[in-house]
């Protein structure tokens, strides 16, 4: 360990606690105490040598050596109180008092000691306090004026000094003052160097923080021009810093978000308060990755650097919040899905309340009448009619339950299909024949167009019949008396195109978007005067999806509806996960079924 290190450690031990945690304050206190302690101790140590060589000292010499205690007391004062400016004021007073005492005894203003008055304000300059410097200057000027006045009125004793001794003392005073001033200059230079070094250290520290922060830091003029941007911008937007300066960053802000971006910067510069805004920022493709350019969501918090003038600058911190935005959108979609599920539950309960109670009431009512046939005197014809009504109600209940069970199986992926070769024309004609009576009773003309040369297809014949029955039954149900339903089947490429077109009431655009949702029933156009569970088209959609087919729904209110189903002629079942086989609709459709199919696929 060097001597300088030992001295530095001893000085640091004397520092006041308030000065130990700031490098610049610690350097100032050390610069104040070091020359005073070392100089005073060195001169006091030389006092015995002086006595041995000089002999008995004069009163002035004793006073000079006694004054050497003052710097030690000043260092003790600073060490105990930490009052840096107060220590400099006391130092100026002590030096002024010593100079006045020596100058008064050795010739007043003409004394060799008078030149030391110049040192008083120079020493005070190290305090870095304008008040201390002004006080020291006023003190030195007052001492000089006092010496001049006292000398002018001959109030000072005239020293009996020879010319040679006077010249020697004057030279000693000037040289000693020069040395002391040089010491002050070196102290000032040391403090300045320490200040610059600390400034560089702080700049490096902040530069290091700016380089390693994931958030992007930028400085803007009031019009939004970027004057500085941290290196984190390269990672965030995929572009070098030089391309973001000026209006380069503004050009990357999404056009729709630019007014909010500029408004936040302008308000922060003008209002003097922090502002926060979220906007989209274009990010370039990252080199070496197959990631195209896209927009990211950025949260910017900005605050002014200056409080006044039109040239106020703004510093901003930008953070990539794309993940948070995605989570918010996911939560919003989940909320909407939950609301739709709740609405579906409500519709299900309302529909089931009607669809189950009506046939159950008929079954209970007519069965009670048959039980009391002796009392009511019911004849055989009436009893047969009641039994038929009970059977019809039971069949209706069975169809409702089967529809719910089939829909549940398809949603959970447990609905099994058994593909086999079958003739689609015969299956389609059979379905139309089954519904022909219902069409006649409803006053609807049912037309079937199935060419005899339709090829044999591979699929589940039960599912094909269920698709056809549901589509044709729906078409008949929603076609007014006098209308027509046309069922056709043709081959296009490797697919069978089954079309069911009616001239019924049609479906409104708002309802068309949700056709195919379980338990959804369009009702605004015809005020729900037709019974049903709302599962028909949902089951059709699921069965078509299980066959890797497509469904297309086109409709216009008052003109009718056309449903087109495309099924592969040769279907080969594949291993699938639950809820993964849902019908895929053509992009040209505006029925809303495509979005729902994609959402189901993503959830799977």
Estimate the mean pLDDT confidence.
Answer: 78
What does the radius of gyration come to?
A: 51 Å
Q: What is the domain total for the residues?
A: 4
**Structural class of the helices, strands and pairings?**
alpha+beta
Helix tally equals: 20
Spatial shape? rod-shaped
Q: Largest sheet, described in full?
A: 5 strands, antiparallel
Give the strand line-up of the largest sheet.
2-1-5-4-3
Which segments are poorly predicted (pLDDT under 50) over 5 or more consecutive residues?
524-530, 576-604
Key attributes of the depicted protein:
12 strands; alpha+beta; 56% helix; Helix Hairpins; five-stranded mixed β-sheet; 20 helices; rod-shaped; 4 domains; five-stranded antiparallel β-sheet; 604 residues; single chain; Beta-Lactamase
Question: Care to describe what's here?
Answer:
By secondary structure, the chain is α+β, with helices and mostly antiparallel strands. It has helices spanning 3-14, 23-45, 47-54, 59-67, 69-81, 84-105, 119-124, 130-152, 163-212, 232-237, 248-252, 258-271, 322-371, 373-376, 380-412, 424-441, 461-477, 509-512, 536-546, 593-603; strands spanning 216-220, 226-229, 275-283, 294-304, 314-320, 420-422, 445-449, 457-459, 484-492, 495-502, 550-556, 560-568. It folds into 4 domains: 3-208, no CATH class; 213-320, 2-Layer Sandwich (Beta-Lactamase); 327-395, Helix Hairpins, CATH 1.10.287; 415-603, Heat Shock Protein 90, CATH 3.30.565. It is built from 20 helices and 12 strands. A hairpin with a 2-residue loop joins strand 9 (484-492) and strand 10. Helix 2 runs antiparallel to helix 9, helix 5 (69-81) runs antiparallel to helix 6 and helix 13 (322-371) packs antiparallel against helix 15 (380-412). It starts with a helix and ends with a helix. The relative contact order is 0.05.
């Amino acid at each position: 360990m060097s001597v300088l290190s030992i001295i530095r450690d001893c000085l640091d031990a004397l520092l006041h606690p308030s000065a130990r945690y700031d490098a610049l304050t610690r350097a100032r206190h050390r610069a104040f105490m070091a020359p005073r302690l070392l100089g005073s101790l060195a001169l006091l140590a030389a006092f015995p040598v002086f006595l041995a060589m000089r002999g008995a000292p004069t009163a002035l010499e004793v006073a000079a050596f006694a004054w050497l205690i003052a710097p030690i007391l000043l260092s003790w004062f600073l060490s105990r109180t930490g009052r840096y400016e107060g220590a400099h004021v006391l130092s100026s007073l002590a030096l002024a008092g010593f100079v006045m005492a020596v100058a008064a005894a050795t010739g007043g203003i003409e004394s060799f000691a008078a030149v030391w008055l110049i040192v008083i304000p120079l020493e005070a300059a190290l305090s870095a306090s304008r008040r201390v410097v002004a006080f020291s200057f006023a003190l030195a000027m007052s001492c000089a004026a006092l010496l001049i006045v006292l000398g002018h009125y001959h109030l000072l004793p005239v020293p009996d000094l020879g010319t040679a001794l006077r010249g020697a003392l004057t030279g000693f005073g000037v040289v000693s003052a020069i040395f002391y001033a040089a010491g002050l200059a070196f102290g000032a230079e040391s403090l300045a160097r320490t200040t610059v070094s600390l400034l560089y250290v702080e700049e490096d520290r902040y530069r290091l923080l700016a380089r390693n922060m994931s958030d992007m830091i930028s400085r803007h003029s009031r019009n939004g021009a970027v004057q500085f941007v941290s290196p984190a911008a390269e990672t965030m937007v995929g572009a070098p810093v030089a391309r973001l300066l000026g209006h380069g960053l503004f050009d990357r802000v999404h056009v729709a978000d630019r007014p909010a971006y500029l408004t936040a910067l302008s308000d922060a510069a003008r209002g003097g308060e922090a502002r926060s805004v979220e906007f989209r920022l274009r990010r370039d493709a990252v080199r070496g990755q197959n990631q195209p350019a896209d927009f990211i969501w950025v949260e910017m918090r900005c605050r002014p650097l200056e409080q006044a003038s039109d040239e106020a600058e703004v510093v901003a911190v930008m953070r990539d919040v794309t993940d948070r935005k995605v989570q918010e959108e996911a939560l919003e979609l989940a909320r909407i899905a939950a609301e739709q599920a709740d609405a579906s539950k409500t519709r299900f309960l309302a529909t089931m309340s009607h669809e189950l109670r009506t046939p159950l009431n008929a079954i209970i009512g007519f069965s009670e009448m048959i039980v009391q046939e002796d009392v009511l005197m019911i004849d055989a014809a009436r009893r047969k009619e009641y039994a038929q009504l009970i059977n019809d109600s039971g069949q209706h209940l069975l169809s409702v339950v089967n529809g719910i069970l089939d829909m549940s199986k398809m949603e959970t992926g447990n609905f099994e299909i058994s593909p086999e070769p079958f003739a689609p024309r015969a299956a389609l004609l059979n379905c139309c024949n089954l519904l022909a009576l219902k069409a006649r009773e409803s006053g609807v003309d049912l037309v079937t167009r199935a060419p005899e040369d339709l090829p044999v297809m591979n699929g589940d014949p039960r599912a094909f019949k269920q698709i056809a029955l549901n589509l044709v039954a729906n078409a008949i149900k929603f076609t007014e008396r006098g209308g027509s339903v046309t069922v056709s089947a043709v081959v296009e490429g490797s697919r069978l195109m089954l079309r069911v077109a009616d001239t019924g009431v049609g479906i409104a655009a708002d309802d068309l978007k949700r056709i195919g949702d379980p338990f959804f029933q369009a009702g605004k156009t015809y005020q729900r005067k037709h019974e049903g569970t709302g599962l028909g088209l949902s089951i059709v959609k699921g069965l078509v999806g299980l066959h890797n087919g497509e469904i297309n729904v086109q409709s216009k209110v008052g003109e009718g509806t056309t449903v087109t189903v495309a099924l592969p002629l040769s279907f080969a079942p594949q291993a699938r996960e639950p809820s993964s086989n849902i019908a895929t609709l053509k992009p040209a459709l505006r029925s809303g079924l495509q979005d729902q199919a994609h959402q189901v696929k993503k959830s799977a």
